[in-house]
Amino acid sequence: MKTLLRGMVAALVLVPAMARADRADRMERRAERLERQGERREKHGERREQRGENLVQKAEAKDQRAEELRAAGHVKAANALERAADRQERRGERMERQGERMQQQGERREKRGERLEHRANSVEQRNANSAAPVTPAN
What we know:
This protein has helices at residues 2-71, 75-130. The chain is mostly helical. It has one domain. The radius of gyration is 30 Å and the shape is rod-shaped.
């Protein structure tokens, strides 16, 4: 009877430790996922920012072409081309801002993942220390 009770007590003591270990694993996996998402977000933001810069450059080229048309006497075509250039420039600037914002989000997400991973390691370490075999006193 005494052995059965000791076995039950030992099992009850170990159950929370196993649950905490599972929690640490989940936290670690989540941290890794956050880091990967952050890296992807950063790359995507860089690409979007570059695309925005390219759009702004194309808009400037359209503006130059509009000036050439205007000099040649094609005022209506120049006005239309200038409006298109303005739209393209605004779109490019907006994409640049979005790209910068996405990069910042990615950096924040990566840092959050690193912090979470550190916390998971701490929890795991704590579990290893607290799950030391407990010998019942006679």
